[in-house]
């Protein structure tokens, strides 16, 4: 089966000269639940943002679904982003707007500016948004303000927003880093369900190895912008753990 | 190297500045009594010489005011003493020159005849003439409307401009950056001209009256609000912007759906505060013919009808105070 993503020698250097990614090469197969681990500052978030081209790689090649997307811009870039949903550590909802509206904003990429600026979304779109909220079990909150929800609920709204894109790929940048353990599992379970039931490919950054072992089908570890490990979750031994996180690190369980 | 040049510039400036104050203010106006001399060759030579002396001294030794200011300290005992003394001399001479130029005169402040005149005016001010309250209220209403219209007309312009004056939205290429710089420059320039000056310009343009005053306020309000709005835009949380970008939204959609919702309330708050400021400014603009209560005030003042002036002043104070309280309440409720 052809890869969904092929990254060859991908590098990214920030304008201030910091090299966040150094010659990173890897593939993502359709249907995978790929987890990226590594210390803060190891380049995980940067990697995510090059995949949906919020960032443009400094060098290397990025192929998505058979198309070279490394340096696309304009409409082609919008089309590319449309196919990839993304959720964030801090949810990034529009706080003052309703849950339903926040979900609808996932469809902005499919609407022309003129259509959407009036703020009128078609009944079909609203119906679709409610159905996406149903998937993450939060339909009854549709009319509430986003910031009246708990962290876990907000993250579920963010997932619903991403699902509005009918994404081929779902990027999750530290989706549970600001949630408590119980809520973390609930959010991870929704991601797992979307991966298994809809076959949506997931690329997810995580901190906790126990979560990695439970949800990942494959793991990549980044250290100072380079891939230092690639394999199955079960292969992350004590030795690899020290290699990735440094000698002083000890593993913390999250149940 | 750059620091070195800056230090030299400060030293030379101090030399020239001290010499100029001594030559132009202290000697003619303090030592002699108002004997103004021509600023001819010997005087010029004195200024240049002191500039050179301090410049050279600062270059060859560390006795430098520039070093003192930039580094906070100077090494070497005598060098330190020289630098400190020059700095103190500069400060003392500035205060002295300021005193002389301002014409500060305690004897004028406590002059018997003057006190009597002031007392007469104060007495009149505090025995307001109630007969003109009706007319004064009408003029006050005119001023409030004038301020309101100026704000209302300026808001759409400021709103539109502010997005092009926000650095974080205009950093994607040379043309946007040029637009950003141009808008910032124009708004900073128009804002640095007092509304009073604009009122004079517009009263020549469209004739004396409320319209001229309103136009003056419009200009000032557009540039002030554009600045405040755009600074608010630069302050927004970038997370939602990123999230909306990630859906494949266009630049316009990103701004409309992630920046604007974060700014609406602060914008509203700035706008109400600006209206409040504009009421006060409209009063002052009235003094130069911008209409409303200010114009009425200056007319009675011209006739030395102090009781009527007192009525108007009390009314203005009252309205400004009420506006202040109301606008503070609304802004508090908006938080």
Blueprint (SSEs and pairs):
The complex is a heterodimer of chains A (255) and B (335).
Chain A: E1 5-13, E2 19-28, E3 33-37, H1 44-51, E4 59-64, E5 67-68, H2 74-82, E6 84-87, H3 99-104, H4 113-117, H5 123-135, H6 151-163, E7 169-172, H7 181-198, E8 201-205, H8 209-215, E9 218-223, E10 226-231, H9 238-245
Parallel strand pairs in A: 3-8, 3-9, 6-7, 7-8
Antiparallel strand pairs in A: 1-2, 1-4, 4-5, 9-10
Helix pairs in contact in A: 5-6, 6-7
Chain B: H1 2-31, H2 41-60, H3 65-71, H4 77-102, H5 106-109, H6 112-125, H7 133-164, H8 174-192, H9 195-206, H10 210-234, H11 238-246, H12 251-290, H13 292-302, H14 306-334
Question: How would you describe this structure to a colleague?
Answer:
The complex is a heterodimer of chains A (255) and B (335). Chain A has 255 residues and is an alpha/beta fold. Chain A has helices spanning 44-51, 74-82, 99-104, 113-117, 123-135, 151-163, 181-198, 209-215, 238-245; strands spanning 5-13, 19-28, 33-37, 59-64, 67-68, 84-87, 169-172, 201-205, 218-223, 226-231. Chain A has a six-stranded mixed β-sheet, sandwiched between helices. The longest helix of chain A is centred in the C-terminal third of the chain and has 18 residues, at 181-198. The relative contact order of chain A is 0.18. Chain B is mostly helical. The radius of gyration of chain B is 28 Å and the shape is flat. The model of chain B has no long low-confidence stretch (mean pLDDT 90). At the A-B interface, helix 2, strand 6 and helix 4 of A face helix 11 and helix 12 of B.
